[in-house]
């Protein structure tokens, strides 16, 4: 489960000359039960990616309290945060694949961080490569792939270790309708198995096709939770 209480976040005004740091999130409070699914909506610049960054533990709230998978983030030590991070899967808006590593190794990364035996890694990666339709591209490097293919690699990497929390930032923006629908079926299955899922999107057709609880942001504030 995740729980936010009055969470505020501002980016450090690195190098800014006297200008105050931009406030990305203000007084955000909501909860998501384990296995819950949330659409994260709002116009460009509303704070969706910033919120996902806090939930992914790659940034810390400037104010308020954040609890992820039962741990209070402010009090957690570095090692505990690292362990927590390994239970989170993230599909970044810009994919963030490692360009010099083959597709196979990009996807295998979360399993190798868990020190899983290599034969297990091979089986898991091949089966998810089949699922995302990229079995023939296992040895390709990400820059050799189309945008949609890269996005499917990013999705495979985010779910391969069956994370307890899955954060997906515009995960369908490079996918066709068929692939987007399959991804939604995957999310539905994972949520049924107890994975908490937040998906930021501008894909109105997809939201209409898969109605679910919505968190709507505007100018860093939570406008709607329902
Ligand atoms: N690295 C950064 N440094 C400083 N400000 C940032 C940074 N990233 C985002 N911001 C600012 O924080 C605010 C929220 O941005 P964010 O990326 O969270 O929006 P978003 O809802 O994800 O938008 P989009 O739909 O375009 O992806 C914006 O005003 C943005 O300019
Ligand atoms: Mg964004």
From TrEMBL:
SMART domains: AAA
Segments forming domain ABC transporter: 2-226
Bilayer-spanning residue ranges: none
Record GO cellular component, one term: plasma membrane
GO molecular function: ATP binding; ATP hydrolysis activity; transmembrane transporter activity
InterPro entries linked to this entry: AAA+_ATPase, ABC_transporter-like_ATP-bd, ABC_transporter-like_CS, ABC_transpr_LolD-like, P-loop_NTPase
Keywords tagged on the record: ATP-binding, Nucleotide-binding
UniProt family annotation: Belongs to the ABC transporter superfamily.
Protein task: Part of the ABC transporter FtsEX involved in cellular division. Important for assembly or stability of the septal ring.
Name of the molecule in the record: Cell division ATP-binding protein FtsE
Species this protein is from: Gluconacetobacter tumulicola
Lineage: Bacteria, Pseudomonadati, Pseudomonadota, Alphaproteobacteria, Acetobacterales
């Amino acid at each position: 489960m995740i729980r936010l209480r009055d969470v505020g976040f501002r980016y450090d005004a690195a190098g800014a000359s006297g200008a105050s740091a931009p406030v990305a999130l203000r007084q955000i409070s909501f909860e998501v039960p384990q296995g819950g699914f949330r659409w994260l909506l709002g116009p460009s610049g509303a704070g969706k990616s910033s919120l996902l960054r806090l939930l992914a533990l790659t940034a810390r709230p400037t104010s308020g309290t954040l609890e992820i998978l039962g741990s209070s983030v402010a009090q957690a030590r570095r090692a505990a945060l690292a362990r927590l991070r390994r239970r989170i899967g993230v599909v970044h808006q810009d994919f963030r694949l490692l360009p010099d590593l083959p597709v196979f190794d990009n996807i295998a990364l979360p399993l190798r961080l868990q020190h899983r035996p290599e034969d297990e890694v091979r089986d898991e990666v091949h089966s998810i490569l089949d699922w995302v339709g990229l079995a023939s591209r296992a040895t390709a490097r990400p820059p050799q792939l189309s945008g949609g293919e890269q996005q499917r690699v990013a999705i495979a990497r985010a779910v391969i270790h069956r994370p307890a929390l899955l954060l997906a930032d515009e995960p369908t923006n490079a996918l066709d309708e068929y692939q987007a629908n399959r991804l939604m079926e995957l999310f539905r299955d994972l949520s049924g198995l107890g994975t908490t899922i937040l998906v930021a999107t501008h894909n109105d057709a997809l939201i209409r096709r898969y109605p679910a609880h919505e968190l709507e942001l505007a100018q860093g504030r939570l406008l709607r939770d329902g």
